[in-house]
Amino acid sequence: MTRLLAVSALLAASLALSGCIVRTAVGVAGDVAEGAVNVTGAAVGAVIPDGDDDKDKD
Length: 58
Prior knowledge:
The protein is an all-alpha fold. The chain is built from one helix and no strands. It is rod-shaped.
């Protein structure tokens, strides 16, 4: 009986915490993707001028 209670408690805990683990993994993946996009955007902005300097010539 004690073993059944322990197994059911472990099962319940694993099901309850699995959502937290998935949410954390998705959040980390989103942060990594956002960082990659920011770095790529900065690199493209450094290579390709966007014409902001035209405002200073007036």
